[in-house]
Amino acid sequence: MKLQVHEFRKILNKNIMSKASKFKLIALAVVTAVVSVNCDDNNNDSPAASANFSGTYVQQDQMARPAINTVFIASGTPKDNFNATVPSMMGASYTSVFKARLLALNSAYTTNALTQTADQLSGLLATDVLNVKTSGTTTFFDGTNVLTGRALADDVIDVELLLIFGGPTGASNPGLTKDNVGANDAPFLSAFPYLAAAW
Length: 199
Hints:
This protein is mostly helical. It contains 6 helices and no strands.
């Protein structure tokens, strides 16, 4: 029995030393990398980076309503073209694209909980802007108010899934009308920036 305990301790000490050595080696590598990055060949401090605002800037992503652009517009050139389109032109340019994708996602689509036909929902979604109601309730959808803005606690993905798959009553396709992600894991703040710290 003593021999087994002794062997166990030996193995345990070997594993602990091995882990401690690995930790020391990783820590040394990180310190070396940090020190190396801050040096140059001439032993001079690196100059501070400066911002250059000359040139032409191009919008990279149009996403007022989360996931809409991602789901309804194909990657590559179609997405680049959509992102560069002025919002006032989106409806005319993309309603048919959105309708085709909507019907591909839900071929049984008739109307949704807002009584919108495929044409109406596609036109609404194709103009990817976030409307804001300056008086009254601000919400993505609360059962009564619709797209009057977006409160932080609004589960926009569930609302979008409900409007696409839920049918006229919102009860169709129950497996597709929720993402099953609960509320935010930290309470919102009462003042700017309103979102809790990440960790």
